[in-house]
Amino acid sequence: MEKAILDRIKKDLLEKKAQLEAELGVFTEETTDDDYQAKFPEYGDESDENAQEVSQYSTDIEAERVLENTLKDINKALKAIEKNTYGRCKYCNQEIEEKRLLVRPFSSSCVKCKTKLQNGA
Asked: How does DSSP classify residue 35?
């Protein structure tokens, strides 16, 4: 992969990482590196407020899970760039298509392997 493209991907990954950390910071607390815990909201003591707190907390837990997993994938991709192992499929060890990495820079599998997995093959 060309250095200019790799530099662009690294820049994109770092920007996305900062964005995710900011989003997580709104409704979670960081417990360890790449691990966050949703904060339980406090809206009041009335029963409707308590119901709203539980509903919001349930939503926040799911959002935390999704954002946290994406952040972990980004950190893995950044480590792979540093180790010069970036861009290889974790299943077949072939190079991941450049187009795929430009669209989804934290991809860890090529389209062929990903398609096989999704189809249960």
From this structure: E
Closest among 80, 68, 66 to 109, alpha carbons compared:
80
Between strands 28-32 and 35-38, the pairing is antiparallel
What is the tens place of the pLDDT at every residue in 81-110?
999 999 999 999 999 999 999 999 999 999
The Cα–Cα gap between 41 and 17 comes to: 25
Burial class of residue 22 in the structure, from the number of CB atoms within 10 Å of its CB (0-12 exposed, 13-18 middle, 19+ buried): exposed
Q: Distance between CA atoms of 65 and 46, rounded to whole angstroms?
A: 29
User: Token pair of 48, please?
Assistant: 């409707």
Q: How many CB atoms lie within 10 A of CB 89?
A: 19
